[in-house]
Amino acid sequence: MITKDLLINFKPSTQIIKKSLIFSTGIIVKMDAINFLNSLENECADIVFLDPPFNLGKKYGNSTSKADLLKIDDYKLFLSNLIDKSINLIKPGGSLYIYHMPRWALEIGGLIGERLNFKHWIAISMKNGFVRGKTLYPAHYALLFYTKGAPNILNRPKIPAAQCRHCRGFVKDYGGYTKYIKKGINLSDIWDDLSPVRHKKNKHRAANELPMELVDRIIQISGNKNGLIIDPFAGTGTTAIAALNVGMRFLLNDKLSSSLNITKQRIEEFYQNK
To answer: What proportions of the chain, in percent to the nearest 5, are helix, strand and coil?
Structure first.
């Protein structure tokens, strides 16, 4: 049975409950993202993670149409509603993470305004190097990090120093501090040690999918055991697995049945391999 405190945060109709996947520490729902956020109690989340569609005309699931292509004003309204609902869900001291392209990250920052404390614009480095249109090569995605007041949790993990794959020496000169570097370097706001998307050989669907390492790191910075993470764009369930890895509870949503089926399978495999 689902824990009572998790159900307290979730106020759906009976019809929605019947369409939900309920696990011992989490619920995954199939509905519109804004309606999902409206079904939750205010100030219930330790982390809200948003990875919305980028409005690039991509196809998701088995649809033959490009549903992810709204008029600019309509997409701005969608983002505004998304941000407003998400901010309401965050506990005092909780965290909001938003993953998007830099062009839209600027818009999002304006939408948040003075309601949250800005912590970081984290640059997730892109690796392909393809020039697009009449611009410089777009070399990163933006991961915006905000907190509601002073953060309850703000861990600063260390990561392994980058090494040459041939000689295994460090790729940077750390000015005589090698003995300290061997224990790891402080995480910065440029993440070039992971990919912005999961490699195609490890993906669970044809559409883009976030790497496990990215969501793991978000939870490592701002998560806590038995805390609650909310993700209205669950995709193939990477947030659920990241939460399960550290004992967090989760409330996830996706409007595609195919995504929910993949998420269900991944969670079941997690429990089988535990």
So the answer is: 35, 20, 45
